[in-house]
Design goal:
There is one protein chain. The protein is built from four helices and 48 strands. By secondary structure, it is mainly beta. It has four domains: 2-176, Glucose Permease (Domain IIA); 188-345, no CATH class; 357-471, Chondroitinase Ac, Chain A, domain 3 (Sandwich), CATH 2.60.220.30; 477-561, Immunoglobulins (Immunoglobulin-like). Strands 1, 4, 6, 7, 8, 10, 11, 13, 14 and 23 form a ten-stranded antiparallel sheet that branches. β17 (212-214) and β18 form a beta hairpin. The radius of gyration is 27 Å and the shape is flat. InterPro entries: Cell_wall_metabolism_enzyme, Dup_hybrid_motif, M23ase_b-sheet_dom. One of its GO terms (molecular function) is metalloendopeptidase activity. It holds the Pfam family Peptidase_M23. It comes from Chryseobacterium culicis. Residues 52-120, 132-167 form the M23ase beta-sheet core domain.
Length: 562
């Protein structure tokens, strides 16, 4: 029987390889992973903060616990359990060289769920990343593997579904695999922008052009520019017949009938997904919540398999003639939108200067203030930045430095930079041990434990904003939703976590001296009653130990009856 099974896998691999060679992507090999029609809440390549969306978000009609099915035969090769990100996820490796991923799940199928639970209790750790051998959990096409949910970094019930190349781990666009999702709607264009490329797309930034709907296409009046070196960006969304605003799959830019730039989002590796910040107008996206995609390369954007090689999209206007511009946008079904306009150079040019401490792509740079040192790698920026760093007073009595203003939060960085801060006073060893750096980037804060290099505190960040050195002696804590000693008849225990600065980075719960499995949901901790604490088991003591980013540890006890 085993020989027959492996022979069938081999035949399947050969047959599907032929289909793949003919069509580039396998057609109709994978089935819908839900029992309801596929409707998209998000597609592959949609714009997200600091990353492309790497799969399909399938709508579950705002419901949880829908059956999730294996898209094809294979075996469970990996599971993840994590607070953010995928939440609970299953990876299935298939015999044709692909792996499918199913995320934000509530529960795995029974035998797998029990295996994971036993591992969690053995490790005394809720978060898990487990890999499996082919014979441990084989699955058939259409077999139920999980229940859908809303776990991890999910904003509402749905199923996140990915198709990956097993060998390279690149995420592939699932819409290229022949799923039956009706779509006869072309992309919708709502804005066109031009950028002065003599120095940087960030300065002075986007220049908006009004767009008009003209019949089946779009147009704009003649674009008169005051720079001979320009590029364009487009604001657009795609839509399936039912669903949300989706990302653009493919775009082309032509001048005087000649193709000068194109991009197509077929595959992306997670190692490269942050390069989205060099494909969009990051400032507009973060500050104004506008998704504008560049129709040109930025010098520090190194995403592979995205834009056509040797076509930069940067236009060098050599004359004051009127030139024809055409933008062509397509979805995976071939639905197409076109925008036509013209561009003309006005030679009354404004002077462009690069002042200040310029950070440029492909060159490392260290910038200093009186009490700080900021070190950028050669991969730090996508376009030139007139980087301005300075210090200003901080009134917080727990602060051990001035506020360090690092340009502004509307300019992206690709990788981590190193920030060194010299405290504004002599710190004791105890204070050093509780020192953190706090980066405020407007919409949120990032807090890291510092490392000490003599009298300099060091931290790493991958966003810009305002940073300060803080001494944090405050204890983290959790609060219960029941009165001490009360009888708890509901199905779970909920503990709400709080900490003044940073995050609760360590949580341990013990029921009557034994580790108890609490799941973490954002800042809350939830235990669902099971055989570890059955009804009628009497009085119990719950001991909870938490630690925060600074390393402050708190031990609390709660009592209840069951």
């Amino acid at each position: 029987m085993k020989i027959f099974y492996h022979l069938m896998l081999f035949v399947c691999f050969i047959n599907t390889s032929i289909v793949q060679a003919q069509n580039n992507y396998l057609q109709n090999y994978f089935r819908n992973p839900l029992n309801i029609p596929m409707q998209l809440a998000a597609n592959f390549g949609a714009i997200r903060t600091n990353h492309f969306h790497m799969g399909l978000d399938l709508r579950t009609n705002s419901l949880e616990n829908l059956p999730v099915l294996a898209a094809a035969e294979g075996y469970v090769s990996r599971i993840k359990v994590e607070r953010y990100g995928f939440g609970n996820a299953i990876y299935i490796t298939h015999p044709n060289g692909y792996t499918t991923v199913y995320a934000h799940l509530n529960k795995y199928f029974n035998t797998l769920d029990e295996y994971v639970k036993e591992k969690q209790y053995k490790d005394e750790k809720w978060e898990q990343d487990i890999t499996f051998q082919p014979g441990q959990f084989p699955v058939e096409k259409g077999q139920q593997i999980a229940l859908s949910g809303n776990t991890g970094g999910s904003a509402g019930p749905h199923l996140h579904f990915e198709i990956r190349d097993t060998k390279t781990e690149e995420c592939l666009n699932p819409l290229l695999f022949g799923f039956a999702i009706p779509d006869n709607i072309a992309p919708i264009i709502s804005g066109v922008y031009w950028y002065d490329r003599r120095f940087s797309t960030y300065e002075p930034g986007a220049n908006a052009i009004a767009v008009k709907k003209t019949g089946s296409g779009y147009s704009a009046d003649v674009i008169r520019v005051n720079s001979p070196l320009i590029s364009f960006g487009v604001k657009a969304v795609d839509k399936a017949n039912k669903g949300f605003n989706l990302g653009i799959y493919q775009a082309e830019l032509l001048m005087d009938g000649k193709l000068i730039y194109s991009f197509k989002i077929d595959k992306i590796h997670y190692d490269d997904t942050r390069y989205i910040n060099g494909c969009i107008d990051y400032t507009k996206f973060i500050r104004d919540k506008m998704g504008i995609q560049h129709l040109a390369d930025l010098p520090g954007m190194k995403l592979q398999n995205y834009s056509t090689p040797n076509l930069t999209g940067v236009i060098n206007l050599q004359d004051e003639e009127v030139h024809n511009i055409e933008m062509v946008l397509k979805d995976t079904k071939g639905n197409t939108s076109r925008l036509t306009t013209k561009v003309q150079l006005n030679k009354t040019l404004e002077k462009v200067s690069s002042t200040g401490k310029t950070v440029t792509p492909n060159e490392g740079k260290t910038i200093t203030t009186e009490n700080t040192e900021i070190s950028f790698s050669k991969n730090a920026v996508y376009d030139a930045v007139n980087f301005n760093a300075y210090e200003k007073a901080e009134a917080d009595p727990n602060a051990a430095s001035n506020n360090i203003v690092l340009y502004n939060s509307y300019i992206p960085v690709q990788d981590e930079y190193t920030l060194k801060i010299k405290p504004n006073r002599k710190l004791t060893n105890a204070e050093k041990d509780k020192a953190v750096m706090v980066l405020d980037y407007g919409s949120d804060k990032n807090v890291v434990k510092v490392k000490w290099n003599n009298d300099w505190a060091e931290g790493k960040f991958n966003r810009l904003g305002v940073v300060k050195l803080l001494i944090d002696n405050a204890l983290p804590s959790v609060s219960s939703g029941w009165a001490e000693g009360a009888l708890v008849n509901i199905g779970s225990l909920l503990l709400k976590g709080t900490t003044k600065t940073g995050d609760i980075v360590s949580f341990r719960a013990e029921l009557d001296g034994k580790w108890l499995r609490f799941a973490r949901i954002k800042d809350n901790f939830v235990y669902t009653f099971d055989e570890k604490c059955p009804k009628g088991s009497g009085s119990h003591t719950l001991k909870v130990t938490t630690s925060n980013t600074a390393g402050n540890t708190n031990i609390q006890t709660f009592t209840f009856q069951r």
